[in-house]
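Memo to structure team: turn this sequence into structure tokens by end of day. - J.P.
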Amino acid sequence: MFARIITFTGARNIDAGISFLREDAVPVLRDQKGYRGLSANADRSRGLLGVMTIWDTKDERDASWTALAGTRQQGLDAVGGGMSSDNYELVLQELGADPPVPGSALLLIPASLDPARADEHLAYFRANVLPEIKQTPGFQAVRMVLDRDSGNTITGTTWSGPEGLRAAATAAEARRQPAAGRGVRFGEASYREVVVSDIR
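Reply from structure team:
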């Protein structure tokens, strides 16, 4: 599957953006060919609102860009601030018994790696990191997106409460040095709250 991540920065009215997503954007998205879901998150202290949409194919994701131009502008008008968009392949998605809901805690970890070794790194993550994440109390979901051209990735783990989030952050920090030895370079972690979830 494939993903588009739209990020609103300097958001002046996150609550208006949440209402717009639930009441206006999601119904429009559900009419788009290939749409598989939406997950939105916020960091109110930093004025950030992130919206990830998931699509069956790259072509369907790309075709939706023009179709949703008016919806994006309405969202920007509601939220305020600036807006950017990035496209990815959704290379990993695992949901726990209790899927994310508004209010769930989200940890986002950006990283970059050699694009030629992307599948190797993904296989390592599936075999060695994913089982540990899924066994942590409070686990709800993990998703990883990848830009195969640049090697940029974002891994998001969702938790039912702050305890699981703290455990996940501690474990992620411990994995940084070994991963760096395999050529993975990490960015700054971001702590957010799930505000809308429409995963189909």
